Amino acid sequence: MYKILVVDDDPNIRIGLSRMIQNAYPDTVITDTAENGRIAFDQVVKFHFDAVITDIKMPVWGGLELLTHLKEEYVIPPTLVLSGYDDYNLVRSSLKLGAIDYLLKPVNEGLLLNALDSIFKSLEINSLNPPALEADLKNQILLEGFFGSAPVEEEKEAFLTRSCITRDTPCRVLYVDMSHGLYSRKKIIRNFIETRFESCFPPSSSYCPIYGEIGQYWILLLFELGETARCAALTAAFLKQLEDEGLFVSASLSPLPLADLSFLKAECLRGFERYFFDLPYTADSKEWTGSEEGEQTGMKRHRAAEQELLDLTTTALAEYDYAGALEHLSRLFAYFNSRRPSVAHLRRTLSNGIYDLMGRNANFIPVVSQSSLTDYDILAQIEDASSLKELQTSMFATLNFYVEKAMDSLNNKEDFVIKKAREYIRNNYRDTITLNDVSAYVYLNPNYFSTLFKSKTGITFRQYLRDFRIQTSKELIRHGNLKVYEIADAVGYPEPAHFVRAFKEVEGISPTEYKNSL
Q1: Among candidates 465, 506, 503, 468, which has minimal Cα distance to 484?
Q2: Which of 339, 356, 360, 337 minimizes the C-alpha distance to 348?
Q3: Biggest CA-to-CA distance, the chain
Q4: How many CB atoms lie within 10 A of CB 388?
Q5: Are 215 and 226 in contact (CB under 8 A)?
Q6: Under 8 Å between Cβ of 73 and 180
Q7: Are strands 170-177 and 101-104 parallel, antiparallel or unpaired?
Q8: What does DSSP assign to residue 283?
Q9: Which of 404, 386, 310 is closest to 354 using CA atoms?
């Protein structure tokens, strides 16, 4: 029995297509429906469907949005896209996202049923192939004997004896991380990989392959029985095909004896670290890199640079300065992305930074502790992130949450907020700053911040900013020879006329008159 999900915002089309399909396959197909892509997404992720038929333009999420989000979840059943728009760009986009066919409305019953027949045939071929399943099972058992913990020593020894393989036989190892494929489910990714493998490695007495799936990885163990150069060339061609398709692949650099298999496995797993550092290069990281010192001296210099940026980050966080922390942490991530240390070192460094933060400001201790096993568990984020970009995004959001929670615990929070607001004005008065800028900096609603500021200072935020700028301009007038327009620009007034008007409002005379009175 096959399950098909019909997705369309028009109830008549949903009902009509469902009846058309059930009439054609009364004993083998059941259908369900959804009125938009968002509802369909929840159903596909939660329940198994053998195929999806979806309209391309719908409210909330259309067909392209549905395919995009399913692709992110690696759950895309065979999908037919329907549309009343004969638009090649839509066709190309839907096929690129994983749709297997595209039909125009009004739907031709014959074309629809032919497409469904092809889907059902494909599903049957994948599920009913006893000889292939038996070969896969033997491969899988042997692979788990070499790479897993399966107790199959007898089968391993029989295979090695039969294949004339000894502990000294050279072998290569290749891993594919199927959790990062551009395809839908692991089964489809695996079928794709093995199809490519069979095209690159025709049967030969020069090598003996074992391959299969363990966890998130598809693994190839290739024993070289002769023609080492040919094995190297075939492996390189296979590797390139997989990488060209966007798969994450790591292979041993050169063959080693079977006795060194554990080293080859570790080498492949370390090789995936190159995919971790996925941030775009930024020039900001350049000032922290590029040393001509020896290896030991250079390593110490880079560790010191990391620690300096980390200290700046934790110091800013301890003072509830999220904006400052964000700036320093961004530079630290850019530095990591450029230097590419071991991922284990990176995780350890960032985790130490969180413990340092709690040591600097005890208000963060309950926040970090209470966030354990939640979406804001920052130590888990550091440990589990699969890429630097993912880690940066999650840490930025979580640290923002931590600062807000830690500030909420302050006994004199209102006085602290006013102090931070004044600091912000003092550090940024030269720029164009608004009430919204400062209220965001202290994590308050603009209207509430405006009322609080006036109640604590006796004047409005706008008046305080104006007065601060004018007092600063008076210092420049008294101790320098700048022209009026230069002073205006220096204190945050791009237009001199606005500066002169503000100066008169505060002092009762113009800047020139003030200078002449000195």
Answers
A1: 503
A2: 356
A3: 105
A4: 20
A5: no
A6: no
A7: unpaired
A8: G
A9: 310
DSSP structure string for 444-488:
--HHHHHHHHHHHHSS-HHHHHHHHHHHHHHHHHHT----HHHHH
CA dist 444 and 322 (Å) reads 13
Please check whether residue 154 is in contact with residue 140, taking contact to mean a CB–CB distance below 8 angstroms. Answer: no
Q: Token match 């739907």: residue?
A: 107
CB 87 within 8 A of CB 113: no
Q: Which residues of the chain have pLDDT under 70?
A: 74, 85-89, 91-92, 124-137, 148-152, 180-188, 281-299, 409-413
HSE-CB of 452 using CA atoms within 13 angstroms? 21
Secondary structure letter of residue 287 according to DSSP: G
Nearest to 79 by CA among 197, 184, 204: 184
Least Cα distance to 464 among 498, 438, 489 occurs for 438
Task: Enter the tokens of residue 214.
Answer: 């363990």
In 162-216, at which residue ranges do the beta strands (DSSP E only) sit? 170-177, 207-214
d(CA 162, CA 134): 18
Burial class (CB in 10 A: 0-12, 13-18, 19+), 15: middle
Rg (CA), the chain: 32
How many helices (H) and strands (E) would you count in the chain?
24, 10
Q: Report the Cα 37 to chain-centroid distance in Å.
A: 23
Beta carbons of 9 and 36 less than 8 angstroms apart? yes
The span from the CA of 189 to the CA of 217, in Å, is 11
Collapsing DSSP states into helix, strand and coil, what is residue 100?
A: coil
Q: Delineate the domains of the chain, giving CATH numbers in brackets.
A: 2-128 (3.40.50.2300), 130-275 (3.30.70), 298-409 (no CATH), 413-517 (1.10.10.60)
Nearest CA-CA partner of 104 in 88, 82, 80: 82
Write down the H helix ranges in 361-412: 364-370, 378-384, 388-408
Taking a C-beta distance cutoff of 8 angstroms, is the pair 426, 468 a contact?
yes
pLDDT for 15 equals: 92
Q: Closest Cα partner for 279 from 335, 325, 239, 328?
A: 335
Tokens of 482: 């700048």
What local confidence, expressed as pLDDT, does residue 169 receive? 92
Please state, in angstroms and rounded to a whole number, the distance separating the CA atoms of residues 497 and 345. 56
| 3-state helix, strand and coil shares in percent for the chain, rounded to the nearest 5 | 60, 10, 25
Q: Is residue 303 classed as helix, strand or coil in its secondary structure?
A: helix
The DSSP element (H or E) to which 333 belongs, if any, is helix 322-339
Residue 161: other Cβ atoms inside 10 A: 10
Secondary structure class of 236 (helix, strand, coil)? helix
For 270, 370, 402, the CA distances from 349, given in Å and listed in that order, are: 18, 22, 19
- The alpha carbon of residue 496 and the mean position of all alpha carbons in its chain are separated, in whole angstroms, by 47
